[in-house]
């Protein structure tokens, strides 16, 4: 079996495990862990939004919490004031986040390197303090809560997020769709433009690529991913708070993306999963577990600069390189050259 086939089989097994979580996990551990896996899926979308900018366009953003918060409040307020269902609230959250990204990105993507990182922090802080001040609308640091919306209804059949399995599979469906769309984008001509700008923006401009527009589109799309994450998180907790718009949330997403592997499609999912599971296991016995998280991040940057996904890719290359070459099966009938034959005698 080739390295590519091994990776494909591993991906299929991983997808199967995710599908089996609500059925199999309660047999071995507390159902609480179903919610932890759902939370990992949600937060991985925020890390994926960082990955789109950092891994594919070369822009380090510490402002993704802004779009996470806008998506969160978009979903929550649409349920409270408009009576939206899950899908309506999700759509409002994503659209609101993309609109905010379109506004902020028109200024932010004119900058690069540390200037870009600084301006994203500034935008995040401005909206954070605005949300904290607008307490009658946002609830400020206390947040706002809302009732559980329905996911699907037909006749007497109604599916609600109040059911843990329905909630898990709904989150899994949305997250899988987002990663699928992400994969299509990075493999499209637009994705090639992203990577060309990442590698050398001047050369990209020389061959006719509009660098500003390319970065702007990436920024808006990343805002949409962060908004989807925020909307899902609001539905997950039936709660929205301005505290999630602070830039330290963006910092966590950056760490998840780097540990998982910036520039890889599923790297943020693996990085988020590793560190959140680690948090849940260690935080109950040691309150200073963040020191270890920091140490893990430093070690990954030093010894696996491309993250967990990059380490897996390198491991697959080693397997492919060490695989013995296949020798043709010996066939006695072909071991000697065939005798010359002549037509007609």
Q: Can you walk through the features of this model?
A:
This protein is mainly alpha-helical and 345 residues long. It has one domain (30-335): ABC transporter involved in vitamin B12 uptake, BtuC, CATH 1.10.3470. It is built from 14 helices and four strands. The strands form two sheets. It has a two-stranded antiparallel sheet. Helix 1 packs across helix 14 and helix 11 (247-260) runs parallel beside helix 14. It is globular and about 55 Å long. 38% of the residues are buried. Mean pLDDT is 87; it is low at 326-345.
Secondary-structure element order, as H and E? Answer: HHHHHHEEEHHHHEHHHH
Assign the structural class, choosing from mainly alpha, mainly beta, alpha/beta, alpha+beta, or little secondary structure. Answer: mainly alpha
Report the average pLDDT across residues.
87
Residue share in β-strands: under 5%
Biggest sheet details: 2 strands, antiparallel
Kindly state the number of beta strands: 4
Backbone CA Rg = 24 Å
For the record, the CATH architecture stands as Orthogonal Bundle
User: Uncertain spans, ≥5 residues at pLDDT below 50?
Assistant: 326-345
CATH fold name:
ABC transporter involved in vitamin B12 uptake, BtuC
Q: Give the termini distance in whole angstroms.
A: 50 Å
* Order of the strands making up the biggest sheet: 1-4
CATH class: Mainly Alpha
Question: What is the structure about, briefly put?
Answer:
This protein is mainly alpha-helical.
């Amino acid at each position: 079996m080739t390295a590519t086939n091994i990776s494909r089989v591993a991906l299929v097994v991983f997808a199967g495990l995710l599908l089996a979580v609500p059925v199999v996990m309660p047999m071995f551990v507390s159902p609480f862990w179903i919610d932890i896996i759902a939370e990992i899926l949600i937060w991985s979308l925020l890390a994926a939004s960082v990955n789109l900018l950092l891994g594919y366009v070369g822009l380090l953003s510490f402002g993704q919490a802004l779009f996470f918060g806008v998506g969160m409040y978009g979903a929550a307020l649409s349920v409270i004031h408009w009576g939206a269902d899950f899908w309506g609230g999700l759509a409002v959250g994503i659209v609101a986040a993309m609109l905010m990204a379109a506004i902020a990105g028109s200024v932010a993507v004119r900058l690069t390197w540390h200037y870009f990182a600084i301006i994203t922090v500034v935008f995040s802080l401005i909206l954070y303090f605005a949300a904290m001040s607008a307490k009658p609308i946002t609830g400020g640091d206390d947040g706002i809560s809302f009732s559980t919306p329905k996911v699907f209804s037909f006749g007497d059949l109604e599916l609600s997020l109040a059911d843990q399995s329905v909630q898990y599979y709904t989150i899994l469906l949305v997250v899988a769709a987002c990663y699928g769309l992400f994969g299509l984008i990075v493999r499209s001509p637009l994705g090639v433009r992203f990577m060309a700008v990442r590698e050398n923006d001047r050369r990209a401009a020389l061959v006719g690529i509009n660098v500003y527009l390319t970065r702007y589109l990436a920024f808006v799309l990343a805002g949409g991913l962060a908004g989807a994450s925020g909307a899902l998180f609001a539905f997950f907790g039936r709660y929205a708070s301005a505290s999630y718009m602070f830039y330290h949330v963006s910092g966590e997403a950056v760490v998840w993306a780097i540990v998982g592997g910036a520039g890889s499609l599923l790297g943020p999912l693996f990085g988020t999963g590793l560190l959140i599971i680690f948090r849940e296991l260690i935080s109950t016995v040691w309150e200073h577990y963040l020191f270890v998280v920091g140490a893990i991040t430093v070690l990954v940057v030093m010894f696996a600069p491309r993250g967990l996904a990059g380490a897996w890719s390198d491991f697959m290359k080693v397997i492919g390189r060490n695989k013995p070459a296949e020798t043709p099966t010996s066939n006695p009938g072909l071991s000697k050259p065939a005798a010359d034959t002549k037509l007609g005698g």
